Amino acid sequence: MGAAGQRVRFGAAGRIGTIAASLAAAAALLLPSTALAATTEIGSAQGTVDCTNTGLSGVNTVQVTSSGDSYTVPAGGTSITSWTIAAGTDTGPVGLEVWRLSTLASDPPFTYSLVGSTPTQTLVANSVNTFTTAITVEAGDLIGLRLDGPAVCETQILNPDLTPNNAVSAGFSFGAAPNPGDKATMFVFQSFQLNVAASVDITIINPPPPPPVPTSADQCKHGGWQGLTDTKGTLFKNQGDCVSFVATGGTNLAG
């Protein structure tokens, strides 16, 4: 009932406009975010080292920093589906490792926890070797290698830069193969680039469209303003805010 006991009625157009605005707003809010899938490659499997020193075995490695090819899982990265390494005359065995830098203040610098790894594989000599896998990852994770065979040089596991480069560095730890969640504090050496690449699945989430913009004052009434925005996507704070926006042709923005 309105003032002085009189009943207030709304015309059919007003009721339809209000209902339409409410339904449109509800539909917009209920629309799920759309996800686009893509795949990208990180790292570089282009070994160039060939010498007779077989080096050490039983080594865990991670590409701490890189220049050019990124060894870091990008934003939206969800899983690593395959990895690649170029073999020389030595055949490993070697496996992929994925590491995550520790953010705990109590951990020493360059402490990483193992996100996941693959079984070590015997490589085909003088060939590019690719293996499928499934390791769940997050943005910022880094790829590395587990070396059960010689670390250098015949396997071409490491690519020392010809020119020292502080922007390229790899971390090394020695001992048994770690399990997921195990931590390792790496010894970091400059001018080393690991000979490994990985394919990463990426999910790109697109947000749902914003609620509709009102075109009549009736759309603002009976709570309709709660599902409407101005032309900049800002929600109205009350009915009057919404009506003012319509009455001024969009000049008075929400807020």
How would you characterize the overall build of this protein?
This protein is mainly beta and 255 residues long. It has two domains: 11-32 and 216-247, no CATH class; 36-205. The protein is 11% helix and 35% strand. It has two helices and 13 strands, in the order αβββββββββββββα. The longest helix is centred in the first third of the chain and has 19 residues, at 12-30. The radius of gyration is 29 Å and the shape is elongated. The model is unreliable at 1-20, 23-31 and 153-157 (pLDDT under 50).
Keywords:
single chain, 255 residues, mainly beta, 7-stranded antiparallel β-sheet, 4-stranded antiparallel β-sheet, 11% helix, 35% strand, disordered N terminus
How many domains, as an integer?
A: 2
Distance between the termini: 30 Å
Beta-strand fraction estimate: 25-35%
How does the overall form come out from the CA principal axes? Answer: elongated
Count of helix runs: 2
Question: What structural class is derived from the secondary structure elements?
Answer: mainly beta
User: Roughly what is the average pLDDT, rounded to an integer?
Assistant: 81
Order of helices and strands: HEEEEEEEEEEEEEH
The low-pLDDT segments are 1-20, 23-31, 153-157
Give the total of beta strands: 13
Strand order of the largest sheet: 10-5-4-7-2-9-11
Helix content: 10-25%
